[in-house]
Design a protein that fits this description.
The structure is a homodimer of 335-residue chains.
Chain A: H1 5-12, H2 16-23, H3 31-44, H4 50-57, E1 62-66, H5 77-91, E2 96-100, H6 103-111, E3 117-121, H7 130-135, E4 140-143, E5 154-157, H8 159-173, E6 178-182, H9 188-203, E7 213-215, H10 221-234, E8 240-243, H11 246-258, E9 268-270, E10 287-289, H12 292-307, E11 316-319, E12 322-324
Parallel strand pairs in A: 1-2, 1-3, 3-4, 4-5, 5-11, 6-7, 6-8, 8-9
Antiparallel strand pairs in A: 10-12
Helix pairs in contact in A: 1-2, 1-3, 5-12, 8-9, 10-11
The structure holds a DNA duplex (16 and 16 nucleotides).
Chain lengths: 335, 335
Amino acid sequence: MTISIKDVASKAGVSTASVSRVLSGKPGVGKKTAERIREVIEELNYRPNLGARGLVKQKTGNIAVVVPRGSFVLNNPFFSTILEGVAKAMDQTDYNMLMSFTSIQQKRLLETQAVDGVILFSPRHEELSLEWLESVGLPIVVIGSYLEESPFPCVRPDDEDGIKQAVTALYNLGHRDIGMINGPMSSMHSVRCLNGYKSRVKELELDYSSDNVLEVDEFDVFKATQAMKTFLNNNKKITGVVCSSDYLAIGVIKAASMIGLSVPEDLSVVGADDVPISDFITPSLSSVHVDLVGIGKRATVTLMNLMEGKQIRKKDVVFEMKYIDRSTTSIPKNK
Amino acid sequence: MTISIKDVASKAGVSTASVSRVLSGKPGVGKKTAERIREVIEELNYRPNLGARGLVKQKTGNIAVVVPRGSFVLNNPFFSTILEGVAKAMDQTDYNMLMSFTSIQQKRLLETQAVDGVILFSPRHEELSLEWLESVGLPIVVIGSYLEESPFPCVRPDDEDGIKQAVTALYNLGHRDIGMINGPMSSMHSVRCLNGYKSRVKELELDYSSDNVLEVDEFDVFKATQAMKTFLNNNKKITGVVCSSDYLAIGVIKAASMIGLSVPEDLSVVGADDVPISDFITPSLSSVHVDLVGIGKRATVTLMNLMEGKQIRKKDVVFEMKYIDRSTTSIPKNK
DNA sequence: TTGTATGCGTTATCAT
DNA sequence: ATGATAACGCATACAA
């Protein structure tokens, strides 16, 4: 019993064409008739059917937000903060946000002409194939970088430099044995972070050893914490650690406390990305800040431009990072 | 240049009707022709246009997840954890998740026949009018309770009992001066929590005073923290506080640390809902646990049933809560 | 079993 | 300025 354009047309005594014209604000309809039509629309509380419109215009009016790795991400403040930016920017447009978490959903979403464009949160190598992504032929903007050879515009933090700043900050405090907690190397993000760590450590003429870096999977918080515990136990000389995410940093703090190390007295910890909660927990987390909300907004705007056929100036937009000194870092204790 | 059902029909040398039939797995098509059609579909990599299908079937295939109060919620683990449950359950269905954060978006989404049903995160009184919600005539399930007179099925934590348990736990530890940090009373949740606090305090024959409860708006974290500081300063006799959410509890811990109170030595803190990060921070937060993911799942399943026209047995599903003793609570210090 | 024809709610083209 | 009418891509009632 939905009310259609025909209903308002007949009630207003005009053709559907005219109604459609006033609906889309197109010229070619008399002032008086237009007025009458508007009244009827109001009266009947008519709302156009977006699906039908989409059918003829070949546009759906919604864009897909594709986040791999399951719904886990929702509880990761890194993602949710960027998502906040995406949502805010999207509110400025006429598009709706279609979220999908599983690959089955994602495939269906992108293949069934259900969206006009997609925002893709950087998948890992094994997750979404570049080939398939290209084959769907949709405008795509990726957040957080994917593969080097990806043809899609990308918006991301300068994570490599971020980690460098973190190492430097620790060094300046007097730390000489600096460890690193990283995510899995199947993600470009982790690769970049490791690069940053390595190169800065060498620049500072500290000795680099793979023993000092721990690679964990953030999905399994429990396993990750366990790994950190043994890592810290096996590397007693480490006085400070940099992490590739705040999430991991919070885990390290927990692991440290479990084995009787206090932060920052016994161990300095710095995170990365500076998610909102990092300033909120006690002690507040030293981190390398980046405008995550801005990244989400920028990605959305870029996608809009892409969909309008505009030329994209920068195919790779990187947001600068900045070290924030808070309460999980201090001068190393003499051992 | 999208490929349609006609293309596969002609290439297979059959009518679109037959193609449509195999597509929807309906009987009435020969084994051999069906096979041929399937081959062509594969060959052409044909995918049905969901919009067109929706037009004729009067279904869109997606459901709206309506979260009021802006994208703020994304960074609130309470919401994102429930959302995780919604997403997981949704993955089991053929529906897509359309998220909306602003009221303009929400109106458009629900009015333009863009969705078949909606999951509504409990709005505050002033946000979404019951009248309007009913007028759109969509199947709606609300999460976390809305208005008493709401006709929509609802899934929520037993927050009233949760707060009672929190008060009791503190009492059993020896606390006699127990404060409360609550959200704004425009939300049913806060109303319920206050009720629980009041009634249990009276049952325990502690004296109730409105001076002992602070009402803050969780949106403005900064302001909230400030308010908590002055609250704690003005109520030195309080040795323990219960909070209507873990989010607030984390804030209290920060406020306490700012004015030199240590948790739990000087002040015991209990949260509510037990979001994942609460067990992860240091010291880990004592809280009243509830299966948030389960709530999300349950709401989704209920919505599915509602859309299928099934009779809903329980119009009000409440999930029980259970106190979890962790590290932010202890025996009160003698003053 | 298979095909034809119509309609779903719009927009757009072409007449008038 | 206005109105028929043909698409859009699909499902289905009805014929064959």
